[in-house]
């Protein structure tokens, strides 16, 4: 799939705005409690003063967001998962299955779209069916090792 530069730029702007909003709400009240000396120190921080990991945050969310993080959540370590994390993909799988009219090759499509292993998707689908979050069973009734015609998968 080919993406143009404007789509990537728009996505980056949305990410930047989203990150700035999060940082603003996290740090909004804590800034008021810092002494004037600490505020003066943070005010003088420049991009060149930042370590590499905070330069990445500054590039994507802005230097003000970095300053708010330094004040609001100093020492915090965060982990940002990849998009092939089953917990992040779960809402997409639910939506995709419930909106799909023909589930003939949906499992194979979901494997390709989400980059999850077939066993992981099957387990997730079983759990979702048990929780009654799906309105249909997308798992094929036939032998799961039956060869699939790849042209039929993308005919949608």
Detailed description of the structure:
The protein is mainly alpha-helical. Helices cover 58% and strands 0% of the residues. The chain has helices at residues 5-27, 36-43, 52-61, 63-72, 86-99, 106-114, 118-130, 150-153. α3 (52-61) packs across α4 (63-72) and α5 crosses α7. It is elongated, with a radius of gyration of 23 Å. The two termini are 16 Å apart. The model has no long low-confidence stretch (mean pLDDT 79).
Overview in brief:
The protein is mainly alpha-helical and 156 residues long. It has helices at residues 5-27, 36-43, 52-61, 63-72, 86-99, 106-114, 118-130, 150-153.
Features:
156 residues; mainly alpha; 58% helix
Secondary-structure element string: HHHHHHHH
Helix content: 55-70%
Discrete helix count:
8
Largest sheet: none
Number of distinct beta strands: 0
Strand content: under 5%
Layout of helices and strands, plus pairs?
Elements: H1 5-27, H2 36-43, H3 52-61, H4 63-72, H5 86-99, H6 106-114, H7 118-130, H8 150-153
Helix pairs in contact: 1-4, 3-4, 5-7
């Amino acid at each position: 799939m080919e993406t143009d530069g404007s789509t990537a730029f728009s996505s980056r702007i949305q990410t930047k705005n989203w990150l700035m909003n999060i940082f603003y709400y996290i740090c909004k009240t804590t800034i008021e409690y810092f002494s004037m000396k600490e505020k003066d120190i943070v005010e003088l921080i420049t991009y060149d003063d930042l370590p590499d990991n905070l330069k990445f945050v500054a590039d994507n969310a802005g230097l003000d967001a970095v300053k708010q993080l330094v004040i609001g959540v100093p020492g915090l370590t965060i982990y940002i998962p990849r998009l092939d994390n089953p917990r992040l993909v779960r809402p997409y799988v639910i939506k995709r299955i419930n909106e799909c009219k023909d589930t003939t090759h949906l499992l194979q499509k979901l494997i390709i779209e989400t980059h999850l292993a077939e066993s992981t998707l099957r387990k997730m689908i079983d759990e979702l069916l048990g929780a009654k979050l799906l309105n249909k069973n997308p798992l094929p009734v036939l032998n799961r090792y039956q060869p699939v015609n790849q042209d039929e998968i993308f005919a949608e």
